[in-house]
Design goal:
Elements: H1 6-21, E1 29-35, H2 42-55, E2 60-66, H3 69-78, E3 85-86, H4 90-98, E4 102-103, H5 121-128, E5 141-154, E6 178-181, H6 184-195, H7 197-201, H8 207-210, H9 216-229, E7 233-237, H10 241-246, E8 252-256, H11 257-269, E9 274-277, E10 283-293, H12 299-309, H13 312-322, E11 325-326, H14 331-343, E12 349-350, H15 353-356, E13 363-364, H16 373-376, E14 379-381, H17 389-401, H18 406-437
Parallel strand pairs: 1-2, 1-3, 6-7, 6-8, 10-14
Antiparallel strand pairs: 4-10, 5-8, 5-9, 5-10, 5-11, 12-13
Helix pairs in contact: 6-9, 9-17
């Protein structure tokens, strides 16, 4: 489900040209800041047509990409970028609210239907848990895509029971056969749930409370667990883990459900069998959402754009294109995803009533996209760790920093040594050539 961003880049270039042509008249420009490969790009141009039909006004999109939440946030914080719409992750939405970096989304669209109500009540509840101080986060953000964090595994060689616990991370059978997502929040929180599993079962601590826990004691506990994991780690990956799994370069990958779904589809085409599961100790539900940053210039068009993305048919197109799951939970989406699951051969019903309502208490859906209620009940939501973020990053750096084995260090030194020697040889050859010309 991956795609080239070539067309998006062309759209961006044309949009910059249009910006110049309109002499920076921001009433006709909508600046959208989104992740790469995170939209059906044809919807970008279609929105411009739809907006003019609905409002009688022209708008042209300047579409720009980011690949790290913090980079997006830094640009907005400096106030030098006037993006109208951005798509941060849950904990960044929280940080932006707390730092007064968001503008409320307009919800009066006149004669245009309000599609914001198509957001699943489950995702609406998740958004309500965002810590926004005295602000209701649902006034400032609308969900876009969501998922879980778990294990992608090679089901030809492993059973679900082999990986039903986070302790599989340090199981000796996975030595040098494990990829771990290089995202400290998505690793820290599940391992904290693992470390407190017995206490959770006894009712001594809740999953929700642990999602806020970044104490020195908890960081130390997770660090020790991660150090036990290191002999198994073949790589800390930001994006390549799913491809390595399709090539059977590893047996296990701690990753996001969206990456897992993509990998499973790709692997099936080359006769590789992959599956995904959320360990019994629990995990996290994450989501990304649309917001209007503080320095936005076109709040009206930004609100219409967010509304446009909540149309059921657009949610379906985005899911088909990028492989992640929309927060839209209306009947049209449920029916489409049910039929899609049947086409892919799924035959076990799940309880997805938390997402679609009572009609989905026993329905065949892709369980990677819509986990059973029993899975969701053992998942928490990420929160911003505020000033404790630096401590978490230091722990993450310590864990990864000394992961190079002796042979790897030697190989790296030899590699750079060869480059140095090759450079010296080239310089000597050029010197001799110059001498011959003289």
């Amino acid at each position: 489900m991956r795609k080239s961003i070539y067309n998006i880049l062309i759209i961006t270039l044309l949009s910059f040209v249009l910006t110049s042509c309109f002499h920076n008249d921001r009433s006709t420009i909508l600046k959208v800041y989104n992740w790469a490969d995170y939209i059906d790009e044809s919807l970008v141009a279609e929105f411009e047509e739809w907006y003019e039909e609905e409002t009688g006004e022209e708008v042209h999109i300047v579409y720009q990409l980011f690949d790290i939440n913090e980079i997006m946030l830094a640009k907005i914080q400096r106030g030098k970028e006037d993006f109208d719409v951005a798509c941060p992750s849950d904990y960044i939405i929280e940080r932006m609210l707390q730092n007064d970096l968001l503008i409320p989304i307009q919800k009066d669209f006149g004669d245009t239907p309000n599609y914001l109500g198509n957001v699943s009540p489950f995702m609406d509840e998740m958004m309500s848990k965002v810590e926004g101080g005295d602000k209701d986060p649902r006034d400032y953000a609308v969900g876009y895509m969501w998922g879980t964090t778990g294990f992608l595994y090679n089901s030809r060689y492993l059973t679900e029971e082999d990986v039903d616990s986070w302790s599989a991370l340090w199981d000796p059978q996975f030595k040098n056969k494990l990829f771990v997502k290089d995202a400290f929040r998505d690793v820290y929180s599940p391992l904290l749930l693992y470390a407190n599993y017995d206490r959770i079962q006894r009712g001594e601590v809740s999953i929700d409370s642990l999602m806020f826990d970044s104490s020195d004691e908890s960081i130390a506990i997770v660090e020790e667990l991660l150090k036990k994991t290191k002999p198994n780690v073949s790589g800390w990956e930001a994006d390549f883990g799913k491809e390595m799994m399709t090539k059977e370069k590893a047996l296990l990958n701690l990753t996001w459900s969206g990456d897992a779904a993509w990998a499973i589809d790709e692997a099936a085409e080359v006769d590789v069998e992959l599956a995904y599961t959320v360990p019994k100790e629990g995990s996290i539900v994450w989501f990304d959402g649309w917001v209007i940053p503080k320095y936005a210039k076109n709040i009206k068009a930004a609100s219409y754009f967010i509304n446009f993305m909540c149309k059921p048919e657009n949610a379906i197109r985005n899911m088909d294109e990028i492989g992640y799951v929309s927060v839209i939970g209306c009947d049209e989406v449920m029916q489409y995803m049910h039929e899609s699951a049947l086409e892919y051969g799924y035959d076990e019903p799940v309880d997805a009533s938390y997402f679609f309502g009572e009609a989905a208490d026993s329905i065949i859906l892709n369980p990677i996209f819509y986990p059973d209620m029993s899975v969701i009940e053992r998942c928490g939501m990420l929160h911003d760790s505020g000033p404790r973020t630096e401590k978490l990053l230091e722990m993450w750096s310590r864990v990864k920093g000394d992961n190079l084995k002796n042979w790897m260090v030697i190989a790296i030194l030899v590699f750079f040594g060869l480059i140095l020697v090759a450079g010296i040889i080239r310089k000597e050859r050029r010197r001799r050539q110059r001498l011959r010309r003289w």
